[in-house]
From TrEMBL:
<dbReference type="GO" id="GO:0006094">
    <property type="term" value="P:gluconeogenesis"/>
</dbReference>
<dbReference type="InterPro" id="IPR018091">
    <property type="entry name" value="PEP_carboxykin_GTP_CS"/>
</dbReference>
<keyword id="KW-0670">Pyruvate</keyword>
<feature type="binding site">
    <location>
        <begin position="270"/>
        <end position="275"/>
    </location>
    <ligand>
        <name>GTP</name>
    </ligand>
</feature>
<dbReference type="InterPro" id="IPR035078">
    <property type="entry name" value="PEP_carboxykinase_GTP_N"/>
</dbReference>
<dbReference type="Pfam" id="PF17297">
    <property type="entry name" value="PEPCK_N"/>
</dbReference>
<keyword id="KW-0464">Manganese</keyword>
<feature type="domain" description="Phosphoenolpyruvate carboxykinase C-terminal P-loop">
    <location>
        <begin position="243"/>
        <end position="603"/>
    </location>
</feature>
<comment type="similarity">
    <text>Belongs to the phosphoenolpyruvate carboxykinase [GTP] family.</text>
</comment>
<keyword id="KW-0418">Kinase</keyword>
<feature type="binding site">
    <location>
        <begin position="218"/>
        <end position="220"/>
    </location>
    <ligand>
        <name>substrate</name>
    </ligand>
</feature>
<dbReference type="Pfam" id="PF00821">
    <property type="entry name" value="PEPCK_GTP"/>
</dbReference>
<dbReference type="GO" id="GO:0004613">
    <property type="term" value="F:phosphoenolpyruvate carboxykinase (GTP) activity"/>
</dbReference>
<feature type="active site">
    <location>
        <position position="271"/>
    </location>
</feature>
<keyword id="KW-0808">Transferase</keyword>
<dbReference type="GO" id="GO:0030145">
    <property type="term" value="F:manganese ion binding"/>
</dbReference>
<dbReference type="GO" id="GO:0016301">
    <property type="term" value="F:kinase activity"/>
</dbReference>
Length: 608
């Protein structure tokens, strides 16, 4: 179709050309430019309800909120269909799928040809991070999914504002993000509730700074401002521009003495970022404020401190396990309404439910597959990777600084993961480079956030394995280089945490959630030099007395605490060959220094 550019709400030349080009290729019925207004959101929601794609929740339960159930095969990120298409294969590195960019473009161009037949093409302008940032990171997603358009309004700064800013002081650069569900409707063909295609491609062209996604409507595959832009493409920008784009939460913690600390935490998908970001501390006198739950862009300030900014505007949180006893602040955020729920269960009175939301399960539900569900059904009512999409500004403990383009100085970085054994509740590294070593060796059991087997231990450096947009060896080197990229670097202290250690009978040893404030208190005690630790071959761990157990002495007795803090030399010795195998896989660009650190660790374990 031909595009009437005089009707388009922008004069941005490159954008208009790209929109015309994509319209000519994908042949939608119409083109719609999103303005990001409430009226638009309501209209799209009403259209989706009328089409049978969405349910509107009862306004008295959750106002202005919608329920979606995806195709049962389109419920998570598809890592084996995710590609980094750099010109040279070595630049994608040993951990990413790679195809020659020209070849990939040829294949995908044929998939996109006519792929929007019978559909509206939404043009979705957005900005990752505050629009008034020094160097705002713009993007435009073209998508044939109204679910994507609605979700992008929650997850990003979307619509008229960013579009206008994109032409302020001349046409500004933007990342073109092309998305099609790959389900064209031919004349007379009826739509399905969740259109998608068996063949999926989530493709990044790091040198062009472009994203092409095909075949999936699910979160990380389709909301292209999130993982695709803010991690895979942004990590490449960050490498080139001397900063870090990371899969991290950002939390502000204030001690009883009134001192504030900013903590960033990198845990793999479905390993506790949202929960820690919204923590309700059980330790008396401590308060927490949320800055971000998934992504952290860290840049040096003039003085050499790393300042973190959350580029997102909403939370795309794991629903199961989110409840009043575990994450009350998330519950309050979604109770504000204006939210989208995907693949959770529905109650008979127009609300949503998932495992872990309430202490008692409702007697009857409609499960995520649309089937009637009772306590006897014997299946989970919500998909394990079901999600809520909800605006940040509804979070009752949101920090005032969340929208500050300068970000916040990060005092500590936590790496973490889900490990039933070996990794203690918390350990402190001895230097930045030791922190990078530990980050590079991090491992975690796989979760339902990505398609594939759940519960398999894999290495996940800095919780970024699926999100590094370039060679992972170069990425680790870039982390080491942070020490030399500023004349006077004041880098955060690095810790490693594990909330998920289990006893021999398979129970979590540590109560987690709000009780993690006890670990945070120890961490800031280490920053201030007031908390005790013992040195072990793998780092400093708290003495038994250094973790405040006031009120949980019975649940976490000395024996349990010792078990959760234990650095077991034999367990660690079993870890060494796995790390060796991993470092070997990372190949020729992996920093030699870390091989030496590994030798030192082996020696320390042998001498322990
Ligand atoms: P993504 O959005 O996929 O990046 O996940 P996330 O890292 O934000 O994980 P989230 O906070 O949503 O937690 C994932 C799951 O882990 C949920 O089911 C939580 O209930 C559970 N979880 C989070 N924190 C803890 C904890 O401290 N202890 C235990 N046992 N479970 C936790
Ligand atoms: C994750 O998997 O880490 C998520 C959800 O935060 S997604 O947006 O699908 O990547
Ligand atoms: Mn995530």
């Amino acid at each position: 179709m031909s595009v009437d550019t005089t009707q388009a709400p922008t004069t941005h030349k490159a954008l208009l050309e790209w929109v015309s080009e994509i319209a000519a290729l994908t042949e939608p019925d119409s083109i719609y430019w999103c303005d990001g207004s409430q009226e638009e959101y309501d209209r799209l929601g009403a259209e989706l309800v009328a089409a049978g794609t969405a349910f509107k929740l009862d306004d008295s339960k959750k106002k202005n909120s919608y329920y979606f159930a995806s195709d049962p095969d389109d419920v998570a990120r598809v890592e084996d269909r995710t590609y980094i298409c750099s010109t040279e294969e070595i630049d994608a590195g040993p951990t990413n799928n790679w195809r020659d960019p020209a070849e990939m473009k040829a294949v995908m161009t044929e998939l996109y040809r006519g792929s929007m037949h019978g559909r509206t093409m939404y043009v979705i302008p957005f900005c990752m991070g505050p629009i008034d940032a020094e160097d705002p990171k713009f993007g435009v997603e073209i998508s044939d999914s109204a679910y994507v358009a609605m979700s992008m309004r929650i997850m990003t700064r979307m619509g008229e504002g960013p579009l206008k800013a994109m032409t302020t002081g001349g046409d500004r650069a933007f990342v073109p993000c092309l998305h099609s569900v790959g389900f064209p409707l031919e004349e007379g063909q009826a739509d399905v509730p969740w259109p998608c295609n068996e063949e999926k491609y989530i493709v990044h062209f790091p040198e062009d700074r472009a994203i092409w996604s095909y075949g999936s409507g699910y979160g990380g595959n389709a909301l292209l401002g999130k993982k695709c832009y803010s991690l895979r493409i942004a990590s490449v920008m960050a490498r080139d521009e001397g900063w870090l784009a990371e899969h991290m939460l950002i939390l502000k913690l204030t001690s009883p003495a009134g001192k504030a600390y900013h903590i960033a935490g990198a845990f793999p998908s479905a390993c506790g970022k949202t929960n820690l970001a919204m923590i309700d501390p059980t330790l008396d006198g401590w308060t927490a404020e949320t800055l971000g739950d998934d992504i952290n862009w860290m840049r040096f300030d003039k003085e050499g401190y790393l300042r973190g900014v959350n580029p997102e505007n909403g939370f795309f949180g794991v629903a199961p396990g989110t409840g009043w006893s575990t994450n009350p602040n998330a519950m309050r955020t979604i109770d504000g309404g204006n939210s989208i729920f995907t693949n959770v269960a529905r109650t008979l009175d127009g609300d949503v439910w998932w495992e872990g939301m309430t202490d008692e399960n409702p007697a009857e539900l409609i499960d995520w597959k649309g089937e009637p569900w009772t306590l006897e059904s014997g299946v989970k009512a919500a998909h394990p990777n079901s999600r809520f999409t909800t605006p940040m500004d509804q979070c009752p403990i949101l920090s005032d600084e969340w929208d500050d383009p300068k970000g916040v100085r990060i005092d500590a970085i936590l790496f973490g993961g889900r490990r039933a054994t070996t990794i203690p509740l918390v350990l402190e590294t001895s230097s930045w480079s030791h922190g990078v070593f530990v980050g590079a060796t991090c491992s975690s059991e796989t979760t339902a956030a990505a398609k594939g087997k759940v519960g398999v231990v894999r290495r996940d450096p800095m919780a970024m394995l699926p999100f590094i947009g370039y060679n992972a060896g170069d990425y680790i080197q870039h982390w080491l280089d942070m020490e030399t990229l500023h004349e006077t670097p004041h880098l955060p202290k690095v810790f490693y945490v594990n909330w998920f250690r289990k006893s021999d009978d398979g129970k979590f040893l540590w109560p987690g959630f709000g009780e993690n404030s006890r670990v945070l208190a120890w961490i800031v005690g280490r920053l201030d030099g007031t908390a005790d630790a013992v040195q072990t071959p793998v780092g400093f761990v708290p003495t038994l007395d250094a973790i405040d157990r006031t009120g949980i002495e019975d649940e976490v007795d000395d024996e349990t605490l010792a078990a959760v803090l234990k650095v077991d030399v034999d367990e660690w010795k079993q870890e060494i060959p796995l790390i060796e195998e991993w470092f070997t896989k990372l190949g020729e660009r992996f920093p030699k220094q870390l091989w030496k650190d590994l030798e030192d660790l082996k020696t320390a374990l042998d001498n322990a």
